[in-house]
Design goal:
Blueprint: H1 4-18, E1 30-37, E2 40-46, H2 52-59, E3 76-77, H3 86-98, E4 108-115, E5 123-128, H4 137-150, E6 158-165, E7 170-177
Antiparallel strand pairs: 1-2, 2-4, 3-6, 4-5, 5-7, 6-7
Helix pairs in contact: 3-4
């Protein structure tokens, strides 16, 4: 006979398996919000609370240097690591373009599309290396689309570095892959 405790635990595990979950790969990032969209969810991850030391490190360059930034850059692709499914990334980029004027709050540093498919690798994330004031989904769509169009071998994993992002022209990197962290 199965104990009541075992039945409760089994019930909890079953319900967790039935709901789409996506966890950040960095303990410093937390899920800030989630919105239901056609065919899946958009999940926003970021720092739980902005701190001055994080902001100050972002304002300084590496050893005080200022990288040369351009409006566009050729994406660098990784055909072996953190590959997202092409169709899932296409849905993310389509969603970003569809709501291109929507302002992204200051705290998120990645937006992931989580498809309703229960199978492995059902998500694609766009992430950026620095906080960008007045960032819109359209600002991210430009660079994510560039990566999506270029890095299509065996899935999507790529990055554009030292590009001007947003109307504030913040110099940052933008990444597109199946994880939303470590975009530098």
């Amino acid at each position: 006979m199965i104990s009541k405790t075992a039945l409760v635990m089994l019930s909890c595990i079953s319900s967790m398996m039935a709901s789409p979950m996506l966890e950040p790969t960095s303990p410093r990032m937390v899920e800030l919000s989630r919105e239901k969209i056609s065919g899946g969810h958009l999940v926003y991850f970021g720092h739980p609370k902005r701190t001055n030391d994080i902001h100050e490190v972002e304002k300084r360059g590496w050893f005080g240097s200022t990288p040369k930034c351009t409006v566009t850059a050729t994406p660098s692709c990784d055909s072996k690591h953190h590959l997202a499914r092409n169709a899932i990334c296409d849905k993310l980029v389509t969603e970003l373009w569809g709501d291109s004027g929507v302002v992204v709050p200051d705290s998120p540093r990645q937006i992931c599309y989580l498809g309703e498919a229960i199978d492995k690798n059902a998500h694609c994330c766009v992430s950026w290396s620095k906080a960008v004031p007045n960032l819109t989904k359209g600002d991210l769509a430009v660079h994510a689309n560039s990566i999506l169009s270029t890095c299509t071998s065996n899935g999507i994993s790529g990055r554009v570095a030292n590009v001007l992002v947003g109307k504030s022209n913040t110099c940052a990197a933008v990444c597109l892959s199946n994880r939303g962290t470590r975009c530098k």
